[in-house]
Amino acid sequence: MKKVIETIEGAMELGGTKKDIVLVVLSGIALLLSMFDWNLPFNIAWVAIIFCGLPIVVEAIIGLITEFDIKADLLVSLALIASVCIGEDFAAGEIAFIMQIGGLLEELTVAKARAGIENLVHLTPQTARVLTDSGEKIVPAEQVAVGDRLRVLPGETVPVDGIILSGHTSVNQAVMTGESLPVDKGIGDEVSSGTVNQFGAFEMRAVRVGEDSSIQRMIKLVQTADAGKAKIVGLADRWATWIVVIALSAAAITWLVSGEIIRAVTILVVFCPCSLVLATPTAIMAAIGNATKHGFLVREGDALERLAGVTKITFDKTGTLTYGTPKVTAVKSTDSRFCEDDIYTFVAEAEQLSEHPIGKAIVKSYQETGNRALEDCRDFKMLPGRGVSAIVCGKRILAGNRELLRENGIVLENAHKEEVQTHLDNGCTVTYVGIEDGFAGYIVLSDTIREESREMIRSMKDLLVSPVLLTGDTANAANAIGQKLCIEEIKAECLPEDKLQVIREFQDGGDRVCMIGDGINDAPALKKADVGIAMGGIGSDIAIDAADITLVDDEVKELPHLLALSKRMMKTITLNLSFSMLLNFVAIVLAITGILNPVVGALVHNAGSVLVIINSAILLQWKMAGTKPGK
Predict the structure, then answer these.
(1) Which of 475, 396, 403 has its CA nearest to residue 438?
(2) Does the pLDDT at position 4 exceed 60?
């Protein structure tokens, strides 16, 4: 029996949404043509019955036999079969046609296949350079053992977790922390698998390998994060058992009392939950259309339903609430021979040839201020994990971290250290500047808050949703951003598993959580949250694939509209359902009294379905009060 059922299920595959649309169109045309007398040996309505009705009947039988699963399809099947048995082919075809439309709308809202896990696996290093007594040997990364000595060249991905034994470099850790700026690393510092070595070569000792490495743990998190995410079941299916029992009972009693089978069939027809089935998917489709106008790509059909119930919304910082690109926010001269403009110009000219993101940011910021054109520097040297050295206007310029100055015998006074520490405490990055053999000043860079972030947070609070800052940045930087945006709840220094744990704790406490992020490190949290929203413009492909919704153009000011739209959509669905049930109740009473026959009954509940669709369509043009028209 199981083999037979599997064969039937395979035969019922229609080949996708495009073929379903073709069948719906053909069935609709057939129903229209069936209203005319063509003197054919069969009713053209049978086209709709076969194309749209037969799959419903077969699915209902399979579900009933294999799992005793009573869904709305069972009542639809009873109405179809009863209508055909008494010769009401049009009524049967009309029921099949409406149900097929409902099923098609639901199918259109189903999520596309995700490639997030597959893309994340591609980040896993494939090979490693193992140092042995006989020299360097390239082996598959999974063969690296704890204690092995490895070499990592510039541009390569760190194969396993470990500790640097020799060399200095800068490592891009965005895959783990989400922060855009690379981190300087030296002897004794830890490095994680999946992070990228940007400049200097170094040797390391393997500490965590294979399934214990950071990148593999993240893959596991993403694979399991949404296992417990509840899927919303259609109301008609939730109530299907009671609907079937009531419909059969009412039809049987009416037949016994009146002796007219046509009244019993009419009851089954009007009891058919077409408008109930259409109530939710039509509203969802209209809301998705509205969201698209405001820059959102909704990947999960029920994501907006889940979004309407969220009580907390967690934000990643870098690239979400901020632009994710550092800019120069302050320049300080500590040498009376040079003013701030001199320091800025010297460093920008020295950094022209630098490949380091901080150096590029200084040059870009300098050029955006409209200062004079940069002149060429001489004797440029890139010092991995330290900074740069170059001759500008005949002077040796050093620009980098404290280690660079210390190695060149330049010492900071305590007063200067305190000034710099104030900026560091606020989450800024500081580039120290040495000219010849003395400390000349420093340049402060920081990520800038998006202009619309403050108003967006305020609107979220107005919608009774609590914002939470969830970031891999330091506590000082996170608190500084939180204070500016009026976010009271802040979780700092979060690794991917930490973000996941925070969301799990919120959910265990009864909150429904929406996560908004852009980085690979946000992927597990995006999947674990009740609703995940990824930034589409600057977001990684993996974050986008892990999310339910993508904000295509990164306009975070549209987020309150999406949240308000989801709540409006749920009100529309409630109204649709209430109207559908009231209409069915009235139609049943009329069917019991014999006022309605099967054909008229089918038309009545068909009219109800049309009204449901019209009410849902109003969502297409709805906009939150105070917002501009969609794009």
Answers:
(1) 396
(2) no
Instruction: Look at residue 15 and tell me whether its pLDDT is greater than 50.
Output: no
Torsion angles phi and psi, residue 447, rounded to 5: -75, 140
Residue 153: how many CB atoms within 10 A of its CB?
11
Residue with tokens 């008494």: 86
Asked which of 126-135, 141-150, 179-188, 340-349 is least confident by mean pLDDT, the reply is: 179-188
Lookup: tokens for 226: 């949404």
Q: Choose, from 302, 316, 473, 545, the residue flagged as catalytic.
A: 316
pLDDT digits (tens, 9 = 90+) for 573-597: 889 888 887 887 888 888 888 887 7
Cα 601 to chain centroid, rounded: 44
Least confident of 359-368, 509-518, 582-591: 582-591
> Which pLDDT value is given to residue 241?
65
From residue 456, give the alpha-carbon distance in Å to each of 448, 450, 556, 593.
16, 10, 7, 57
C-alpha gyration radius of the chain:
32
Q: Assess whether 316 carries a catalytic annotation.
A: yes
* Opening angle at CA 438, ends 435 and 444, nearest 5: 65
Number of residues assigned to the chain: 631
Sign of the four-CA dihedral 367, 371, 372, 374: negative
Q: Which residue has the tokens 């034994």?
A: 165
Q: How far apart are CA 427 and CA 484, in angstroms?
A: 13
Best CA proximity match to 318, nearest among 448, 157, 499 = 448
d(CA 553, CA 291): 13
**Nearest-CA neighbor of 160 among 194, 114, 122, 189?**
194
**Average pLDDT value for residue range 544-562:** 83
Residue 301: the pLDDT is 65
Helix axes 357-368, 340-350, angle to 10 degrees: 130
Which residue blocks in 148-273 are alpha helix, DSSP H? Answer: 174-177, 214-225, 235-238, 240-258, 261-271
What pLDDT band is residue 554 in, cutting at 50, 70 and 90? Answer: confident
296-298/513-517 β-pairing: unpaired
Query: Which tokens go with 510?
Result: 């009864």
pLDDT at 567 over 90: yes
